[in-house]
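Example record

One chain of 200 residues, shown exactly as stored in the release files.
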Amino acid sequence: MLSARERRDLLQYARDTLTAYFEGGAPPPPPTLEDPSAHAGAFVTLEVDGDLRGCIGYPGSSQPLGKVVAECAVAAATGDPRFTPLRRREMDALEIEISVLTPIVPVQDVSEIEVGRDGLVVTDGKRRGLLLPQVAVEHGWDRDTFLAHTCMKAGLRGDAWKAGARILRFQAEVFSESSERASVSAQEHRGDESGRAPRS
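Predicted structure tokens for this chain:
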């Protein structure tokens, strides 16, 4: 797992990378991570005023994590075909979320899948669909519904997972700018509480 400092540094790095992209400046230096090669890849999700504006990732990247995050941030802002490119004026309302992925492993039996813990990949020939763990939680899906939507993300029938499509799973460490701010605020609050005089 990443430390709190590493999570904050990666989020700031993603934001600084986008700022440099929009302003035409030099890319920022990548953050220093204790073990940048411990993860299989990452996704960057961008929201503006609570609305999704882009989500791009590299699930099996062998590149350093910082580089993956920077590339995904720009790709999510400019290359997600579902949305128009992010505009500079949206940066003030932008919320950045990063999902750092564990290695992807085959599923031998669907009973191995745990909603809320696992993300899914479904492949069949050249078709491939991936959904992050938090997607099932956000939509209130059970396991079978999660599988069906992952199949449809791959352009397959919803029941393709029952008919020979390959199923894989992974976990993700998910953190966002708002969650990290809340964490810092909670730590500061606990520090204030511990410094108060006891009640008489």
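Notes: The mean pLDDT is 90.
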